[in-house]
Amino acid sequence: MYNKESILSFLDKSSERLEMPSFGSNMNIDYISSRLSAYCSADKWLLLFNSIVWWPSAEGLTAMVEIVGTGVVGRQGFDDFRAFGPGYIEFDYEEDANKILSIQIRGQEIDPTSLFINTNFDARSDYGFWVSVALAEKYKESLLASQAEIRKFIPPGFKHLLSIDEWDYPVAYEMLPSQTEAFPRIADVLVAKDSSIWKPVKEPNTHWAYWLEQSC
H/E/C letters for each residue in 66-98? Predict the structure, then answer.
């Protein structure tokens, strides 16, 4: 069985071991949009982070799933097998790296001129990041890992309790999950197995702009 204290202790240790998502502190991956889902069985629990990221050293636009908790099968946190390519952006690297040749999201062609791409190269010089931000604002549900892609990571007997897109996430090396508003409330939901007791936090920080400022 588990209680609030054991959940928060587990999350704090996971954070110290760098098994939690690295918002704002990963030099290779930019987190653009994330969804946090809580699951539980009779005696175990897990939290699943479903994120849209820009990962230029890998597949570029990527859906990344990271999982922590006592119900995780396999590695805690990040695992190569939990990354998906829901979309693809092709740039004209031979003549103009800031020119988009084509965009596809789950097999659908996207017209680049339909996007509002608002760049700030002083904050991030990679044009692919800003294109990914524009795509996430318009096609978020398609770019997140799908339910079929997520299902394989949820063990039999676990039920979904809660999904949230806004919460407060601890800034790396400055605080732990137990010191946030969100994670003690999520622990309460898991212990009670009741999503109705969740209360939104006063100052969520999951928008990409917050973490861009942290990494500059």
Answer: EEECCCCCCCCECCHHHEECCEEEEEECCCEEE
